[in-house]
Design a protein that fits this description.
Strand order of the largest sheet: 1-2
Number of domains: 4
Number of helices: 15
Number of strands: 2
Order of helices and strands: HHHHHHHEEHHHHHHHH
Structural class: mainly alpha
Length: 300
């Protein structure tokens, strides 16, 4: 991890850039901010390290424990960009997933007593297992976004992944354990329809208390819609901070999906169009374009 002088967010961003190899745009999307904002953070962090002559050294003792959350965040965001790639042709970048899992295993070897490190590895193993099994069947899953599963459903059966560690992890509920619990709900379900959405809602609400973020609130709203129906989902989406998610394509995509389920084709088409304008990943753009065309066809 980089020296502890710059603020934590800046250290995480700079580590993602220099160690994780993520682009400025990918880091900006991870933090839900603009590219210029992240670019400024990176410049300020580099300047702070240079001007204060901060050494690059391995932290020890209490300092190591204090800096663990930032290190976990780096590993998580590397994995997340791999599992839900924002750009390119593929939804999943397996190279980033593998690297994040390797780093997570190293953390577990160094700090086996840390439940959040174990929770993060369990989360990554669950998600990676789903991706690998889906890839083998030539079916790409709807990948997870910043804090849990992406809010776009599928009516098809899903492969049951190999679950290696989560059961003992989720009993002590930190942020990563709760995300592992959500992933475990998806893993145990034989199909999308059989998923325990009410339990997932409960986990997301707990996660929002532990580690609040606009994306967690979005995913919780989607889970509410899948548990209680599309009208309930739309109502929950209306309560979100839209400004914080204004450039996040999954907000209009989620709204479009609920409107489509209600047969409100013109409104759904408008939201799919907004989502398509914001999406960068080629596979996602293809999916959204197909949904848009279908809704437009029903309007006419």
């Amino acid at each position: 991890m980089l020296p502890s002088g710059p603020p934590a967010d800046s250290r995480v961003a700079l580590t993602l850039r220099l160690v994780g190899g993520l682009s400025t745009g990918e880091i900006a999307r991870a933090f839900l901010v603009s590219e210029p904002t992240i670019a400024q953070r990176l410049v300020r962090a580099k300047r702070a390290i240079r001007d204060r002559r901060l050494p690059y050294e391995v932290p020890q003792g209490d300092d190591l424990t204090a800096r663990l959350p930032a290190v976990l965040a780096v590993v998580y965001l590397i994995f997340n960009e791999g599992y839900a790639a924002h750009t390119g042709e593929a939804l999943v970048r397996h190279d980033l997933c593998r690297e994040a899992l390797r780093l997570g295993e190293i953390l577990l070897e160094l700090m086996p007593e840390q439940p959040e490190a174990l929770g993060l590895v369990a989360l990554m193993e669950l998600q990676a297992s789903r991706a690998v099994d889906a890839h083998r069947r030539r079916r790409q899953p709807r990948p997870a976004r910043r804090s849990g599963p992406r809010p776009l459903g599928s009516g098809t059966d899903r492969p049951r992944p190999r679950v290696s560690r989560p059961r003992g992890v989720i009993e002590r509920a930190g942020a990563y354990q709760l995300q592992a619990a959500i992933a475990a709900c998806h893993a145990r379900a034989a199909s999308w329809e059989a998923t325990d959405w009410r339990l997932i809602v409960a986990h997301y609400r707990a996660l929002a208390r532990v580690a609040p973020s606009p994306v967690i609130e979005l995913n919780c709203a989607v889970a509410i819609g899948l548990a209680d129906g599309p009208e309930a989902g739309l109502s929950a989406l209306d309560e979100l901070d839209a400004a914080a998610l204004r450039d996040y394509h999954l907000l209009p995509a989620a709204r479009a999906d609920f409107l489509r389920r209600l047969g409100r084709w013109a409104e759904a088409a408008r939201e799919y169009r907004r989502a398509l304008d914001l999406a960068d990943n080629a596979r996602e753009r293809t999916f959204l374009a197909a949904r848009l065309a279908a809704c437009e066809g029903l309007v006419s």
